[in-house]
Amino acid sequence: MAKYITAPLTKEQARSLRAGESVYLSGSVYTARDAAHKRLCELVEQGKPLPFPIEGAVIYYVGPSPARPGQAIGSAGPTTSYRMDAYAPTLLRLGELGMIGKGKRSPAVVEAMRETGAVYFGAIGGAGALLSQCVKSAQLICYEDLGAEAVRRLEVENLPLTVVIDSQGNNLYETGRAAYLEQRR
């Protein structure tokens, strides 16, 4: 059975989720890819505030296409997450509790997730047009010069996701593969 959750997340919400669970996420989500992550971490190094509240934040690794008339956003499919792995531990330790993307994460990210109680959600790659229908509004927050990769606040409603790695480090990419191979024996 799917869970319905709202962002920003609470630590209790994040810690209650388990790898393999389906969720529908509503609320405020921020977009950022690698160039934006680099700039955010530079702000942290300089002791400057981030341009959005990081406590409980969910960051969606997406560079949406331009919105068509009458739409909040264009196609909004996930990008490959490992490109954010150098930066994710810093933001997790500042209070980020959720990440949305596709693909594997580094051991350093998984360890930071365990330390902070964060979760990694998978979104369906190749379904960006369908996922964009869950976005009710999009507001530019910063880094407009990055174009599609600028940081935006999205208001989403029932964005379908799967918990890929939970706050305990359980990883669906590992457990799912093992279960599949076991069935084939």
TrEMBL record:
Xref: Gene3D superfamilies: Fe-S hydro-lyase, tartrate dehydratase beta-type, catalytic domain
Pfam family, one: Fumerase_C
Name of the protein in question: Fe-S-containing hydro-lyase
Species whose genome carries this gene: Lawsonibacter hominis
Keywords: Lyase
Isomerase as UniProt keyword: no
NCBIfam families registered for this protein in UniProt: PRK06842.1, ttdB_fumA_fumB
Family: Belongs to the class-I fumarase family.
Domain of life: Bacteria
